[in-house]
Structures are given as C-alpha cells and as structure tokens.
Amino acid sequence: MINVTDSAGQPPALHVAGLRFAYPDGREALRGVDLTLAPGERVALLGPNGAGKTTLVLHLNGILHGGGGRVEISGLPVIPRDRAAIAEIRRRVGIVFQDPDDQLFMPTVAEDVAFGPANLGLRGAELDARVDEALAAVGMSEHRDQVPHHLSFGQRRRVAVATVLAMRPEILVLDEPSSNLDPASRRELAEILETLPVTLLMVTHDLPYALELCPRSVILDAGRIAADGETTSLLADRDLMRGHRLELPFGFDPIAAAASRHP
Ligand SMILES: Nc1ncnc2c1ncn2[C@@H]1O[C@H](COP(=O)(O)OP(=O)(O)OP(=O)(O)O)[C@@H](O)[C@H]1O
Fold this sequence. Notes:
This is ABC transporter ATP-binding protein. 37% of the residues lie in helices and 22% in strands. By secondary structure, it is α/β, with parallel strands linked by helices. The strands form 2 sheets. It has a 6-stranded mixed beta sheet with strand order 6-7-8-3-9-10, sandwiched between helices. Strands 2-1-4-5 form a 4-stranded antiparallel beta sheet, with helices on one face. A hairpin with a 2-residue loop joins β9 and β10. The site of adenosine-5'-triphosphate has 12 residues, from α1.
C-alpha cells in the first residue's frame, strides 16, 4: 500500500507511481509515469499520437499490467491476479472508449445500460432505478426502448457514457469524447460531463474541449509526463505546445477563451 492521503486523510481518486510498460515487441510505451488525481478533479490527458495515453488508460483497470510501478484507485491497488480486487476496480473505473459501437451490443438502449449493473447482481426495481438514473444523467431517458444502432452518433456516445455511469464509477475515463460530434452535441456533452459527480480523466486532442472541461491538464509524451498544470497556462505556452506537437486551432486564444467562460 502506498499510503498517499490528503490533509483530510482521504486517499487520492487515482494514484499512479513509476508506471512502466513495454509491448511484447519491446516498444516502451510508458517510461515511469507518476500521476495523482484528487477526488472530483477533472483532468485532460494530452499528448501527440503514440505518446502512451491509451496504454496508460488501459492500466487504470488492469487490462494492461506487468511492466512495473503501481496504480491505486481510492487506495485500492490494481492487482490483476487478484480477481476480487479487479472486479471492484472495474466497478470504480469506468472507461468510455472512442467508438460507442464498441460498448453497445444489446437490442435496446435500456438493456445496454442495464448490462453492467445486472452483471453485478442487481435485479428488478433496483436495476430499473440504475438504468433510469444513468439515462437521465445523459439526457437520453426518452430513448430507452430504441435500438441503439438507430440513434445518431452523438446519441450513441451519450448512451455509451450511460452504460458506464450505471456502474456508479468513481473515476470516469473518456477517450476522445468530442470526436465526430457536431458543435451542438459537443456542447451538450460538455454540459453533461461538467455536472457528473465523478473524477474525470479525459484523453483528447481537442484542446479547446480540454480547456472547457478540465481545469488541469497533463501532457504525456514518449511515455513520460512532460507537463502537469493549469490547462489555461499550459495551452498558452506556445513553445511547450509546439514542443509536444500539440496545436491549437488557428486564432484560438486560450486566455481569452478561459476569461469568457469564467469572467
Ligand atoms: N498492441 C501494441 N503492440 C505494440 N505496440 C503498441 C501497441 N499499442 C500501442 N503500441 C505502441 O505504444 C506506443 C504508445 O501507444 P498508445 O496507443 O498508448 O499512444 P496514444 O498516446 O494513445 O496515441 P494516439 O493519440 O494515437 O491514440 C506507440 O509507440 C504505439 O505504437
């Protein structure tokens, strides 16, 4: 046990220490990553293609492991050989993958959202309440009996978020949540994500979206944390951004955008 706590004695929502990982072909994807998230924080994980972002995310619930270092979720170590611990970790860490169709496979929206909690043993009214709560959180209650694949892409992404929320995770990890969304769907999803009572880690190449949602950002490059700080300051540092192949949209001014959001 690492025993990292805040002043109130509460463990961090996420604590990663010295995490290393190489794929079987020998490619080193993580070279000693340290990252701590406080409960309720919203943090963007930025970095160029191939930086190791997905590899890091796949360590948070034990899908990848074995390279060295430690991961703890609210003080509980992620130990892949301990099946009971991994079941609890997978309940605590909900990952929404980039393609919603990877997470939707049941005949109706409600059945997709019920799938996870039903696997936890929930039944009847308790299960229905979970489904209602998760669909309401993403504004999709009226679509509960629809076939997921008849929904728009933006609606399918929201249902994918609901399938994870139905597990009442402590940490919600989102891989490129704004990709392929039109401006209205993008804004609606941001409004939903902002109100969720979870710790949020968002992997994104959409820097304005990171600024909109996440007060803090972390830049991962070549398997190492290259910067960790206030999103506005990181995005405003042109040399830092250029040095890690991160590009703001033409004419986008992070300081002005942050000021207009929080005047
Ligand atoms: N299954 C795999 N086998 C071998 N190497 C891999 C595998 N998956 C990823 N890698 C390599 O590990 C490194 C990190 O990849 P990863 O997918 O974690 O990066 P990423 O930051 O998520 O990139 P992107 O922004 O493109 O999604 C890259 O060099 C990649 O080529």
